[in-house]
Structure formats: C-alpha cells, structure tokens
Amino acid sequence: MSEEVASRTRSKANPTTPLDKPKDPKPTLTQLQHVIRNLLGRKADNPIENACAIAHILHPHELLELPNKQLENLVWEVQGAGGGPPVFHKLPLGDLSVLQIFRAFAEHCHDKGHPIPWNKWNTISLKDFNIFRFDIYKPDAYGIKATLPTPETVTSAPTFSYDAVRDFKRSIKCDPAVFPVFKDESRWDEWDQITTAHARSQELEDVLNPNYSPSNMDEMRLFLEKQKYMYAVFA
What we know:
By secondary structure, the protein is mainly alpha-helical. The protein is built from 10 helices and 3 strands; from the N terminus they run H-H-H-H-H-E-E-H-H-E-H-H-H. Helix 8 (about 160-170) packs parallel to helix 10 (about 215-235).
C-alpha cells in the first residue's frame, strides 16, 4: 500500500468534523441552588429561590437557622397584571413541605453523627436525599407540623424594612479598624471587654449574644448583615 493510500485510509477511519463545536459547559450552581433544584426538584425560576433572594438567604445553612414561623412567612414576588406593581405571596404548600423535609434531612444527618459541613452541600446526591425523604422521613418525628399553614397573598410589599439594612451598611459607626486583634490567650478578658465595648458602640452586640434570636424577618435580615460584618472583623 502506497503512503498516499494509507493516508486516505487513516483519514476515513478517523473522520474529523471541523464544524462540530464543544458543548457549553453546564453552569455551576451555588450550594443553595443545588439544594433547591437538584434535591428539591425545582426549576430555575421557582418561588423558593425568589423568596430566598428577597430575604437575602444565600446559603442552605441560613435556611436551616430560620425558626419555623419565619420559614412560613417567606414570600415570593409575582409581577402584577398589566405591568402593575408586584404582588407578594407566601410560599405554596408544596414548596413549604419540601423545605421542611430538607430541614429534617439535615437534622437526621446531624443526629446520625454526619453533620453536613458548610461547604459540602453540593456533594449531597439526590439518591441519598430521596432515601431519607421516602423511606425515613416522618413529620411527627422531626417536630414538623403535619398541617401546613394556608398560603396568603400580600397585596403590598412585604413588611421587610430594607432601610434598617441600608442604614447599617452606611452607618458611620461601623469601623472594623477599632477592634483589637486577639494575639495573647493570657489577655483574653481584656480583649473580650474591649471587643464587646466596640461591638456595643457599633450596635453589634446581638452578634456576640448566643441567646439572641431575631423575632421577625426584618430583624433577621439585619442580623445576617451584622454577622457578615463581624465575620470580616474576625477574619
């Protein structure tokens, strides 16, 4: 066989298609999106993600930290008819139900000695979640009400006060530079007193109070902002 014939033979055996384009990579989901879409089975445009955005919930752990009453009070936004103002609804019963199952799943993992780390939610498979959901989960066993609240329509904007968060962000009181750096364990008491004093002067004492619990969505959003600020201070 001549070299020319051999070359043609190789070409036919390994055809190339220059017009073929590589497929676009699948977009990377956040951990919260992985939970909502892959585990709870919701599509990209769904009430749960919309409600989380309104409440400034960015991570699965923040959903877990919500008291049941605040979970039930989450709202999502629907554009008003004819281009009118948006209408806010409480989450549908089906969405509340799967959120409660998700919270029970996290509690189950913790009770079994396998708590899910902050950065590992996107490693949880649908198979593992469904085993719990269909074979193990019982509402009464996890302190979850079998009868869910009736959804409501909120014709006006929700009662979240965005001014409180905005004012906190713009506050001239917030100065992370005044907080001392913790270097010496023998001077813990001194460091603690100074840090607490500065936190109070900047209205951050709630973050250092282990017994503090926000009583409504407005306070919860402000508390999350204060937590982010203090994390940055201690980082």
